[in-house]
Design goal:
Growth Hormone, Chain: A; two-stranded antiparallel sheet; two-stranded parallel sheet; 4 strands
Length: about 575
């Protein structure tokens, strides 16, 4: 018995067993980043290639690289991919948590297969195997959906799985420093991300069909390696993992509905003066407000009535599931509702970000040397984001030196991201005005690129990376920076953040484009993208500055009082 224990302990502590899972996870990050930079970031060029519009069968819109659609349809495909990715992430997290949270390997298996299959399906569509155009469109729709499923959880689940493997080989399993583990994971993943981004540069220069096949094959190879390394992975103790879970059940939108319904049914009930009248496992999360009244965390005067959903009534009422909710469910619901004003302030920000994810690349392919240099602009955007997201950035160092400034740092990040989003729209507006001026007055020929350097787009790509890194990281840390939140709840909050910004932002972009038929015609050169950027600048300045100022003051004051 003792010898088997020592043998198992020796296997877990061996360098090969400790290093192999990490290296395999790096290959997943490498393939993911390769596909993102070589395919996903420039996917708009898959649907709208300006050189193919008149060179090859303009009536059928066949293509030199891929499939040419009208501008509105091309934007709809790309934004739908972003929206589905954000939505599927919430669904996948719920599935994982609903079954105990110990199925990361199985989920990663499925996601890698889905991503590889989706890329392969898009490659089939780009090869024009079928003569009918509607079949190509159907294949593309299927491919986009499958790619969205694969993209949705691959990066966050691989990060979580890497953390588990690193924690398993910590010297003291009883006292694991999560921040140290995450810092190690970020360094390893940053190395793999840089490698994938650099390899994407030569792959971007080839046409779409071999590019999609190559990225799909790389994804398939990493899947095989991941399967072969399965015996080396550390198996998580399900009993220990379950005992550390704070929430009784996974949080979903149905939880909010159930809590609100129970609170409405008990709206006439008197508010109790003792914690014994609440349905809870412990007495954590109770506070006395300014009027010495009992209140559940998080403290919010307008949401105190929701606390009644956790009040214990008579025996018959307790059996009625619609009238009784746990304290944890009430607390999570209140926290979600309390964050709604902040999330609503990000709607215009998400619209600007969605426009940048689509129109910036579309502007680039009309300029000189786009088939070679466009990928460098996306690398510039990534560098800009890492500059403000890295632990060595000035704002991160400020919070390490002055811990009390952490909340201020998060608010500063959000403010900075909002302001830069306005500046980003203004710069894009000015560049598009110049591009259209050259096109209309000097070079009105659609068969060739406009004699304007693609580096004119560098400032807006750089600002796009800055605004995304500042605002999204600030929102994430502001949202999950509370000790009362369970680990499961933090995962949902991160997914909700992405859905609010990327998902709803993409939906709003599609809605704005299709509701402004006079601004957006069949091609970019016929459209008035400059006016769209102008409207985004005006709306962003008005809504973000005024509305976010009010919300920031309210939330900051409340959080400081709570601390």
């Amino acid at each position: 018995m003792r010898s088997s224990f020592l043998k198992e302990n020796k296997m877990q502590s061996s360098p090969i067993r400790a290093l192999a899972p990490t290296m395999q996870n790096l290959s997943l990050v490498f393939s993911y980043k390769l596909a993102e930079k070589a395919v996903i970031d420039v996917l708009i060029t898959f649907f709208a290639d300006p050189d193919s519009e008149l060179k090859h069968e303009p009536k059928r819109h066949s293509l030199r690289y891929a499939i040419v659609y009208d501008l509105k349809y091309a934007i709809a495909f790309v934004n739908s991919l972003e929206g589905l990715t954000a939505l599927m992430l919430i669904f996948l997290i719920y599935i994982n948590e609903a079954f105990g949270g110990g199925h990361l390997k199985r989920i990663i298996f499925c996601l890698v297969v889905a991503y590889a299959c989706g890329l392969t399906i898009l490659a089939i569509a780009s090869s024009h195997v079928f003569s009918e155009s509607y079949i190509d469109s159907l294949i593309i729709i299927i491919g986009v959906i499958i790619v969205a499923v694969g993209r949705a959880g691959l990066k966050p689940f691989v990060e979580e799985f890497t953390d588990e493997q690193l924690e398993a080989h910590e010297p003291d399993r009883q006292d694991i420093n999560e921040k140290r583990v995450q810092a190690r994971r970020k360094k390893w993943h940053l190395f793999a991300s840089v490698a994938g981004s650099l390899v994407a540069i030569p792959i971007y220069k080839i046409s779409w069909n071999p590019r999609l096949i190559t990225t799909g094959w790389v994804m398939g190879i990493t899947f095989v390696l991941f399967c072969l390394a399965t015996p080396l992975y550390h198996k998580e103790d399900q009993a220990a993992a379950t005992s550390t879970r704070i929430a009784e059940e996974p949080f979903t939108s149905f939880t909010c509905i159930r809590v609100l319904w129970a609170a409405l049914l008990k709206r006439r009930e008197p508010y109790p003066f003792s914690t014994d009248h609440f349905f809870c496992l412990n007495n954590d999360g109770f506070f006395l407000n300014n009027n010495d009244e009992l209140e559940l965390w998080p403290q919010a005067k307008l949401l105190r009535w929701i606390d009644k959903a956790a009040i214990i009534e008579g025996h018959e009422e307790q059996e009625n599931a619609g009238r009784l909710c746990s304290v944890t469910m009430v607390q999570e619901t209140k926290y979600i509702l309390k964050m709604v004003p902040m999330w609503s302030a990000f709607l215009v920000f998400g619209l600007v970000l969605s426009a940048g994810n689509t129109f910036y690349a579309l502007q680039g392919i009309y300029l000189e040397s786009a088939d070679v240099l466009l990928v460098y602009l996306f690398l510039l955007r990534t560098i800009a984001r890492e500059m403000v997201s890295n632990d060595l950035s000035p704002l991160c160092l400020l919070s390490k030196w002055f811990p009390e400034a952490k909340l201020k740092r998060n608010m500063m990040r959000i403010w900075g991201g909002m302001v830069i989003s306005i500046l980003c729209s203004a710069v894009a507006w000015w560049v598009e005005v110049r591009r259209l001026d050259i096109f209309e007055n000097e070079y009105r020929d659609w068969m060739y690129s406009i004699p304007m350097s693609i580096w004119w787009l560098a400032p807006q790509f750089f600002l796009l990376g800055l605004m995304e890194g500042l605002a999204m990281d600030g929102l994430e840390e502001l949202t999950i920076d509370d000790d009362h939140l369970s680990r499961s709840m933090k995962k949902f909050l991160k997914a909700i953040n992405d859905f609010i910004v990327y998902g709803i932002g993409s939906a709003l972009n599609i809605l704005c484009i299709n509701s402004n038929m006079k601004l957006f015609l069949d091609t970019l050169n016929e459209s008035r993208l400059d006016l769209y950027y102008k409207h985004l600048t005006i709306y962003g300045t008005t809504l973000n500055c005024v509305y976010l100022l009010f919300i920031s003051i309210v939330i900051y004051r409340d959080r400081m009082q709570h601390k």
